[in-house]
Amino acid sequence: MSVNRQHIGSIGEAEARRRLVLGGYTILAANWRNRQGELDLVARSGERIIFVEVRSRSAASRGRFGTAEESVDPRKQRQVRLLAQRYLQLTNRFDVPIRFDVIAITINDDDTIADYKHYEAAF
């Protein structure tokens, strides 16, 4: 991954965390990894566990590679579901309501947020 993509991704994930916390969510994990992949954010709202896939794009790349939210394709959705199942097993959380959200962020060249969309129950 290029340095610029990492930079854009870290800005997007930080903004997603910030807005989730402001919205009353509790962050349980960020960048949770195992050998199958990574969960960007795991949050809690009430009793519900929310698995959040964060997708960030630079404003300059808008239109060339599709939107951030379009990049959460069926393959990625399957991967996030499998990782969520493993997370729940390892943290002994059984029979809790869950949800899968997508947060799509567009970032300007000066690192400010151009667009922020939170899709609850996206898949």
Automatic annotation (TrEMBL):
InterPro entries the UniProt entry points to:
Restrct_endonuc-II-like (IPR011335), tRNA_endonuc-like_dom_sf (IPR011856), UPF0102_YraN-like (IPR003509)
Q: Which Pfam families match?
A: UPF0102
Give the protein family. Belongs to the UPF0102 family.
Q: What is the lineage of its organism?
A: Bacteria, Bacillati, Bacillota, Bacilli, Bacillales
Name this polypeptide is given: UPF0102 protein D3P09_01995
Q: Out of the domains of life, which is the source?
A: Bacteria
Entry's Gene Ontology molecular function annotations: nucleic acid binding
Give the matching PANTHER family. Answer: UPF0102 PROTEIN YRAN
